[in-house]
Design brief:
Mean pLDDT of chain B: 93
Order of helices and strands of chain A: HHH
Structural class of chain B: alpha+beta
Low-confidence stretches of chain B: none
Number of strands of chain B: 14
Strand order of the largest sheet of chain B: 4-5-10-6-7
Distance between the termini of chain B: 46 Å
Distance between the termini of chain A: 51 Å
Largest sheet of chain B: 5 strands, antiparallel
Shape of chain B: globular
Mean pLDDT of chain A: 90
Radius of gyration of chain B: 18 Å
Order of helices and strands of chain B: EHEHEEEHHHHHEEHEEEEEEEHH
Strand content of chain A: under 5%
Strand content of chain B: 25-35%
Oligomer: heterodimer
Number of helices of chain A: 3
Helix content of chain B: 25-40%
Helix content of chain A: 25-40%
Structural class of chain A: mainly alpha
Largest interface: A-B, 13 and 13 residues
Low-confidence stretches of chain A: none
Radius of gyration of chain A: 19 Å
Shape of chain A: extended
Chain lengths: 118, 265
């Protein structure tokens, strides 16, 4: 299942930073090809070490469990928390995925009048 | 993702290519490396009835080095420039820019002339050639003419090419002694088209400080001054030349330009 976990992690990085189906005001999809829909590639996925923590299921005959793209769950939380930790000094916080450069800049701008008022 | 049917011609001389292109200006498209036109055909964003393949024309291949600069054939690939297979009159800047165009498979086939003729605002050569003060050589039914890159690029996907005309070579002037060039591009991912490009040429001896901002909505914004622009002047010029970009776009572009400036200075 290593490949599945690794692929899931890449997918989670995509969720956190890249993948988005946008529509314009007229309802026209803006990401209908892979030229527009951003995916993490070889340059965006770091080396990943996979460690397994095994527990047997009490509900199945041989203790086996199913596995999906479990690796996809962690990256968005880890990356979003890291970004928000970095933005903390500016009083800014990003609450939407994917965390695009534009969203980060918007969050910083939104925080600036607030910071100035305090 | 399959192109509509088209005819394909591979003329053996420039004259033949020009007459093919001129005979059906609405229906014919020139093909060089095909790295932009290919995907456009597949997505049917372009539906020419005839493709005229220019890549092997002897008139578009080859380089000539002169005292003042270098002529690069329009069919010179990004990879050839990246690898230093062509002379670089800009002390390594051309190779550096070439090495960051898309990814290697694209650079192996994509050409400098094709990129300029396509005139995607986010294409590296569009901004770089303007910043370096390059010229392009154009041959058409009415003869040969030479145009400054800054005048050749008219807008997003718009050039000075008239029906039947072919960009045959690019003149890149030698970077003057003591002159400095800075280049910075901001991309979401390596290989993606740039979000913003900044290019700065500082030639104090000749009293030139040129700032070029690329990957904007149309033609790159060019600011030719005698010294470094005042921040206000810069912001003003950028805002004037970048209709359709919002504050955040402008901030990203200004950042690219500032970093290019720092590299050049």
């Amino acid at each position: 299942v290593d490949g599945q976990v690794l692929g899931g992690t890449a997918q989670g990085i995509g969720t956190a930073l890249y993948e988005e189906m946008l529509y314009d005001a007229a309802g026209q999809p803006q990401a209908s090809t892979l030229a527009d829909y951003m995916l993490p590639g070889a340059t965006e996925v770091p080396g990943i070490e996979i460690l397994h923590m095994e527990t047997f299921s009490p509900y199945t005959r041989f203790g086996q469990k199913g596995i999906g793209e479990g690796g996809a769950i962690g990256p968005p939380a880890a990356i979003a928390n890291a970004v928000n930790d970095a933005l903390k000094g500016l009083g800014a916080e990003v609450c939407d995925l994917p965390i695009t450069p534009r969203r980060v800049l918007q969050a910083i701008r939104a925080a600036q009048p607030k910071a100035a008022a305090e | 993702v399959k192109p509509a049917p088209f005819d394909y011609a591979r003329p053996t001389s420039l004259a033949e290519a020009i007459s093919l292109l001129a005979s059906a200006p609405e229906e014919a498209r020139a093909l060089a490396g095909g790295q932009s036109l290919g995907p456009m055909l597949n997505l049917r964003l372009a539906r020419p009835q005839l493709l005229v393949d220019l890549r092997r024309l002897p008139e578009l291949n080859g380089v000539r080095e002169e005292t003042g600069g270098v002529w690069l054939g329009a069919a010179t690939t990004h990879a050839a420039i990246e690898d230093g297979r062509t002379p670089d009159p800009t002390r390594g800047n051309l190779a550096k820019i070439a090495s960051a165009i898309a990814y290697r498979a694209v650079r192996n086939r994509g050409t400098i002339g094709g990129s300029l003729s396509h005139a995607d605002p986010a294409a590296d050569w569009v901004t770089a050639m303007i910043a370096l003060g390059a010229d392009v050589l154009i041959t058409g039914p009415k003869g040969v003419r030479r145009v400054a890159a800054a005048d050749f690029i008219r807008g997003a996907f718009r050039t000075d090419l008239k029906p039947g005309e072919v960009l045959t070579a690019v003149w890149i002037p030698r970077l003057a002694e003591g002159a400095q060039f800075g280049w910075y591009k901001i991309c979401r991912k390596p290989g993606e088209f740039a979000t913003a490009i900044g290019a700065v040429l500082i030639d104090s001896k000749n009293g030139l400080h040129r700032s070029v901002m690329g990957a904007v909505s149309g033609r790159p914004v060019i600011l030719d001054l005698a010294q470094a622009p005042e921040p206000d002047r810069l912001t003003e010029a950028l805002a004037a030349g970048t209709a359709g970009l919002d504050d955040i776009d402008l901030q990203v572009h200004a950042t690219a330009l500032r970093r290019a400036e720092r590299i050049a200075a």
